[in-house]
Prior knowledge:
Helices cover 77% and strands 0% of the residues. It is built from 22 helices and no strands. α1 (20-40) runs parallel beside α7 and α17 (329-346) packs antiparallel against α21 (420-471). The relative contact order is 0.14.
Amino acid sequence: MPPPAAATKGGHTPPDGGWGWAVVFGAFISIGFSYAFPKSLTIFFKEIQEYFSVSYSEIAWLSSVMLASMYAGGPVSSILVNRYGSRPVVMVGGLMVSVGMVLASFGRTIMHLYLCVGVIGGLGLALNLQPALTIIGTYFQVKRPMANGIAMAGSPVILFTLAPLNQFLFDSFGWRGSFLILGAIVLNCCVAGALMRPVNKNTQPKPKAELPERDRAAAEKAALPDTREQSADLLTGENQDESKSQGCLRKFIDLSLFKHRGFLIYLIGNVVMFFGFFAPVVFMAPYAKHQGVDEYSAAFLLSIFALVDMFTRPTTGFIGNSKWIRPRIQYFFSFAVSFNGVCHLLCPLLPGYAGLVVYAIIFGLAFGMVCALLFEVLMDLVGAQRFSSAVGLVTIIECGPVLLGPPLSGALVDIFGEYKSMYYACGVLMLVPGIYFFIMHYFNYKRLDEEKRQAVAVDMRTCEEAVKLKMSPDGNTAQETDG
């Protein structure tokens, strides 16, 4: 069964609905632009490559710098969200992406595009992504996988729209005019940010003094925001001697997560996975053009991919929210990562444009499953309260493989003169972490079950001792009176 909507440490109960669905719609737009924008720009790569006379590897740096800046900005975004809330951060992020695209339209060198599209635009996307992911955890608990799945569906929906739109804009206005128009379109993120109203935290749990001893212990357990928060939050007594500066740092970024078993499993697997995660999408349209497919048909592959991805993400959220999958959702994520690896290994074996269409369909299914679960499984491991810090730390570390993945894949294309080796490499880089996740989460779930049994045994002993203490005062009082 899904966990009950328990009161969080902030003293409120996630409403699991109401205005939360408007917040999900805002996150749908914000997350959609964050992930779809770098992919949709690949439509312009061939023409920009010819305009500046650069190699496959050099043009791939454009998406890589943008994605890496988006990931590298994670900790900064975490700090701003913890300090100011999601709404203003998302609105500033949308404005930054718009400014970056407008400035890029006047670019005279590829380095100018790296700076404007990659750095300025990427940092703006970071301010869109992080707050949208965080605020869902404050509005949803029971229906959180479903809400995350719907919000993550924004990426394929917007990519499905932008892929053919970008081709039309290029044919009509060239890449410079297209960048100007895209700078205006991305201002919709500011509208999305306006929907992200802070959750009403006025609902307070009942005072503990009103509850009997056993009920109070049960209520304290129910108040935990997530079953995967494990035992790290029990160290409050030891943390009281920390200096004020350390406490201030932990208020923004929780470095104790590096001692968290589930977080480390997630982080190690994701670092390897992200070397091969984005390159197949970045090179899908160039791969098709390399095989002699016309521009619109190549762009249509991205639309097919996005259409399948669009329906896969919310469906994955519904499945992940079921009573059969939710308690062991990490296995579902492990399967999705492995499925991606197998998909890329099969891609070079599928002949012609029909084979590319089949690959786009299967890849859309596999990619959508991973994206729908990517942040839900992290929240499942560390809890909603620590999620903002966790995603900030994850994104700053992942920016390395995100930055290097597509250019290294492009270098393989430059070296071998074909795309097969690139897809084989990406397949291995996805399949290996998928198997790793299966193995490590098997042992993690086993340890969690053991810790849960030990905690239950300790609670039972505590209850027995409390009963004895309640029975003993009369006898002690009598002894003291006789003395």
